[in-house]
Design brief:
The chain has 240 residues and is an alpha/beta fold. The protein has a domain of 167 residues: Rossmann fold. The protein has a six-stranded mixed beta sheet with strand order 5-6-7-3-8-9, sandwiched between helices. α5 links the parallel β6 and β7. α2 runs parallel beside α4 and α4 packs parallel to α5. The longest helix has 16 residues. It is globular and about 50 Å long.
């Protein structure tokens, strides 16, 4: 697999999302650039998942616009997303991957090689014949990651990928993410886990009440947050 970084940055230009009487995102101006992972953090209901879905193109903004590499029309094919609770097809782990490879229009002659490569990458070698729904939660999440990588994405979106995993499964998943990053794939992740954000992020985006409170390099954010809201959040205070 390879992932030359094209179609970046993903730029939000005064983006708002309104659902009925509720403003989910408000006047978001943000650039998601090539390079180290961008991690979206904030309390529950802050707008992380909505921003992620808008960035991925699953949902459209109510106002404003989102562009990829300066282009508003048309989304790049080489993008993929992994959800917190992915659905496993009622077939083996390998068959789940074969389905994903076919959906990604990978040539038949290449699929067996790609399948083996993906199983190795996510640490599921030897489990290809096991029913996917009988895998552990951590194994299912890594299989979902392998299915996403079958698209050979340049940008991989992760929505709370380790929220329901125990520490050992989280460590295994994050190790795979490290290998994905090393291949040049841009990772954009939403999480409420500050530990995961510290371990993985190159850039941090803090959201609260649908607004971007602070955005910048992760090292600077965790060492010297610029806003009172960020300092309160890092101190473990409840943001309401």
């Amino acid at each position: 697999m390879h992932a030359p970084l094209t179609n970046l940055p993903i730029a939000f230009d005064d983006v708002s999302v309104v659902a009925g009487a509720v403003t989910v995102l408000e006047c978001v101006c943000l650039s998601i650039d090539a390079g180290a992972p961008t991690v979206l953090i904030g309390p529950n209901g802050s707008g992380k998942t909505t921003l992620l879905r808008i960035a991925c193109g699953l949902d459209a903004p109510s106002r404003g616009r989102v562009s990829w590499g300066g282009q508003v029309a048309g989304l790049p094919r080489r993008r993929a997303i992994v959800f917190q609770r992915p659905t496993m097809l009622r077939r083996s782990a390998a068959a789940n991957l074969r389905y994903a490879l076919a959906a990604a229009r990978i040539p038949r002659a290449s699929r067996a090689t790609r399948l083996a490569e993906l199983l190795e990458l996510v640490g599921l070698v030897g489990l290809g014949d096991r029913p996917a729904r009988r895998l552990s939660g951590g194994e299912q999440q890594r299989l979902a990651l392998a299915r996403a990588l079958a698209r050979d994405p340049t940008v991989l979106f992760l929505d709370e990928p380790s929220a329901s995993l125990d520490p050992a499964a989280t460590k295994a998943f994050e190790d795979v993410i490290g290998a994905v990053i090393a291949r040049g794939i841009k990772v954009v992740m939403a999480t409420h886990d500050l530990g995961a954000a510290r371990r993985l992020a190159g850039e941090i985006v803090l959201l609260h009440r649908g607004r971007v409170i602070e955005a910048g390099p992760a090292a600077r954010f965790f060492a010297a947050p610029e806003t009172a809201t960020a300092r309160r959040f890092l101190a473990g205070e409840l943001l309401v």
